[in-house]
């Protein structure tokens, strides 16, 4: 399509459609990821990595969990190319289907006791497929929200795809709890349920098919944003968005990657690592709090409610004072929070006191998570112009997942073991990652007033390069 082609104006997406499409999709994607994260602690060490050593099995399970993060940048490149070349809608539908199919198939996998080493290999393959799919999901959902947002409310609209993270967590872990109550077992320790280890753990994976159908129905009703359509009409769509992203916007990619680092490390420490630490007994792993699985997940869900609330609240604040200023302040607080880990996560003689401290720790951590995660839906896309926005924001977001999310649970468990059961080194790890984020924020620019219109001066200059390249 050339810049002179006459086409009718695309209908606008209503605010309700934009919010629903961005929220439903990311909720499903994060649900699928959390289902695996929970199973990585409860099920997979026993059923797919039986080594005779609980720590070794857990690390192996987390390694497969982290392997998906390596596939995410590949997904970011592929889906980013499709999103910047063919549009956001088609790309989001494909990523959702890919994620849903992979998650459903995990629920059908044979275990190590049935097919031996083939079981973890198949699990790894499907986990990589999950990572590949989510590599394209987040950025597309963020663009659907922010490219359709009213003027001055991009950060607010950008919090809705972010809200999929706490909602997905609550649905996934809530379903595990329902299964626990429904299956017979001698105590409230889910791991002692033979029915759960045999087939109960498969239900959340299979249930994802229902959620994917709902998500597809919503997303197929979307139309492309005015910003993308305008760029397409003017011939500004790039043939190789990846090349242009690294050639013209390499600095933004690097800064975006490290701006997300503290968010990723904090999130996976608050979910995967704390579940391991909180439910481990002193006899099995020194330093563990020995809280029952059910009680700890309920405590996490309470914390995640604060995560969701402050994700939404962060949007209007970021629209008012700027994304950069808000994130600088919350990153400083995260550094302090990391240094204070041992004060919160220590086994005390009074079990109620231990529980109260742990619950306070989870609420504070998830509150900080909401404040730092919420503005990312607007900030990362705003670093890039329309015709490379999908690719640029997706690469920054997902490369950061390797540095943060993929390594965080593994590093945390190793540091925990090295410190003899103390969480002091785990907290220092979070603080160090946050320092890198703080430096990146200081070096970055405020994006609050970035012009999202495809006819902006920055896009126009890129369009000239594109047209010149086409003429050559």
UniProtKB/TrEMBL annotation:
<dbReference type="InterPro" id="IPR011701">
    <property type="entry name" value="MFS"/>
</dbReference>
<keyword id="KW-0769">Symport</keyword>
<keyword id="KW-0812">Transmembrane</keyword>
<keyword id="KW-0813">Transport</keyword>
<dbReference type="InterPro" id="IPR036259">
    <property type="entry name" value="MFS_trans_sf"/>
</dbReference>
<feature type="transmembrane region" description="Helical">
    <location>
        <begin position="291"/>
        <end position="314"/>
    </location>
</feature>
<feature type="transmembrane region" description="Helical">
    <location>
        <begin position="155"/>
        <end position="179"/>
    </location>
</feature>
<dbReference type="Pfam" id="PF07690">
    <property type="entry name" value="MFS_1"/>
</dbReference>
<keyword id="KW-1133">Transmembrane helix</keyword>
<dbReference type="GO" id="GO:0015293">
    <property type="term" value="F:symporter activity"/>
</dbReference>
<dbReference type="InterPro" id="IPR020846">
    <property type="entry name" value="MFS_dom"/>
</dbReference>
<dbReference type="GO" id="GO:0005886">
    <property type="term" value="C:plasma membrane"/>
</dbReference>
<feature type="transmembrane region" description="Helical">
    <location>
        <begin position="115"/>
        <end position="134"/>
    </location>
</feature>
<keyword id="KW-0472">Membrane</keyword>
<feature type="transmembrane region" description="Helical">
    <location>
        <begin position="351"/>
        <end position="374"/>
    </location>
</feature>
<keyword id="KW-1003">Cell membrane</keyword>
<feature type="domain" description="Major facilitator superfamily (MFS) profile">
    <location>
        <begin position="18"/>
        <end position="448"/>
    </location>
</feature>
<feature type="transmembrane region" description="Helical">
    <location>
        <begin position="199"/>
        <end position="218"/>
    </location>
</feature>
<comment type="similarity">
    <text>Belongs to the major facilitator superfamily. Metabolite:H+ Symporter (MHS) family (TC 2.A.1.6) family.</text>
</comment>
<protein>
    <recommendedName>
        <fullName>Putative proline/betaine transporter</fullName>
    </recommendedName>
</protein>
<feature type="transmembrane region" description="Helical">
    <location>
        <begin position="253"/>
        <end position="271"/>
    </location>
</feature>
<dbReference type="InterPro" id="IPR005829">
    <property type="entry name" value="Sugar_transporter_CS"/>
</dbReference>
<feature type="transmembrane region" description="Helical">
    <location>
        <begin position="326"/>
        <end position="345"/>
    </location>
</feature>
<comment type="function">
    <text>May be a proton symporter involved in the uptake of osmolytes such as proline and glycine betaine.</text>
</comment>
<feature type="transmembrane region" description="Helical">
    <location>
        <begin position="91"/>
        <end position="109"/>
    </location>
</feature>
<feature type="transmembrane region" description="Helical">
    <location>
        <begin position="395"/>
        <end position="417"/>
    </location>
</feature>
<feature type="transmembrane region" description="Helical">
    <location>
        <begin position="57"/>
        <end position="79"/>
    </location>
</feature>
<feature type="transmembrane region" description="Helical">
    <location>
        <begin position="423"/>
        <end position="443"/>
    </location>
</feature>
